[in-house]
Write a structure and sequence with these properties.
Length: 262
């Protein structure tokens, strides 16, 4: 159970449901005007915590740097949207109690007409005994809690561009050296010897004759063939980088007025 002594620990604390899913962070704490104990908190959800939703602290617990509430993440995010700008009105209380299926501490149900609003932000809570505009603190009425806002940055994924593969044909010149050969005529003379005398004296003594030799030569021939040389595909990789973001935050300052001045 979360009591008055836990107030100082709540602001800015992470909020989880009973299944361990993170819902958001505590924005404001709403107190019971009679007991001063926290009864509601607003939970900042959405991108950069821009949305605040009321969640009852009944059945909730605080452990270290986290608050665990008795309602699921989806139920909290679907709660009625009520402006976080002051005490809860009667109609707003009734709407929240009806949504969460709870009865009030005063015993009336969500269908009854509630008494004057009993819950107000911790920042505007006024103790009945003094009527002064001082904050309740944990265990000491002479102290006040100073709060400040802090930037909470996140990321969202969006399309940054597209890449595609496209194949087209280009023509280029290539040179290849091919060895070739050809035949040439060579005049050969040989003397008359006993070995070739028979061929030399065969036939008429004086006559006209003609002898022909066919010459051959190689010519280069160019052809093409298609071969597969490589496979190309598109791949993706995640590159981590850092960017600096800025925003305005508010914080409270405490001034002291004593006998000798401020």
């Amino acid at each position: 159970m979360i009591t008055h002594n836990d107030i100082a620990r709540l602001t800015g604390t992470d909020v989880y449901d009973a299944d361990g899913d993170k819902i958001g962070t505590v924005g404001q704490v709403y107190l019971d005007a009679q007991s001063g104990d926290p009864e509601w908190v607003t939970v900042k959800t959405g991108l950069f915590g821009t949305r605040e939703t009321f969640v009852p602290l009944r059945g909730a617990g605080v452990d270290g740097d986290r608050v665990t509430v008795a309602h699921g993440k989806d139920q909290v995010k679907g709660a009625p949207q009520i402006e976080v700008d002051g005490p809860l009105s009667n109609d707003e209380e009734a709407e929240l109690y009806s949504y969460y299926g709870l009865a009030t501490n005063d015993g009336y149900s969500s269908e009854d007409t509630p008494p004057e609003s009993a819950y107000q932000p911790e920042s505007t809570y006024q103790p009945e005994s003094t009527g002064q505009d001082t904050r309740r603190s944990s265990g000491d009425d002479n102290a006040m809690t100073r709060s400040e806002e802090r930037l909470t940055a996140g990321t969202r994924t969006e399309e940054a561009g597209r890449a595609r593969l496209r194949k087209y044909v280009v023509t280029e010149q290539q040179q290849v050296t091919v060895p070739v050969s050809h035949e040439e005529v060579r005049l050969e003379r040989e003397p008359i010897t006993d070995a070739n005398a028979g061929d030399a004296y065969d036939g008429a003594e004086i006559t006209e004759a003609e002898h022909e030799v066919t010459l051959h030569a190689e010519r280069p021939v160019v052809e093409t063939e298609t071969v597969a040389v490589e496979r190309v595909r598109l791949g993706k990789e995640t590159v981590r980088d850092e960017e600096t973001v800025s925003g305005e935050v508010r914080k409270e300052q405490i001034e002291f007025d004593g006998p000798e001045g401020r």
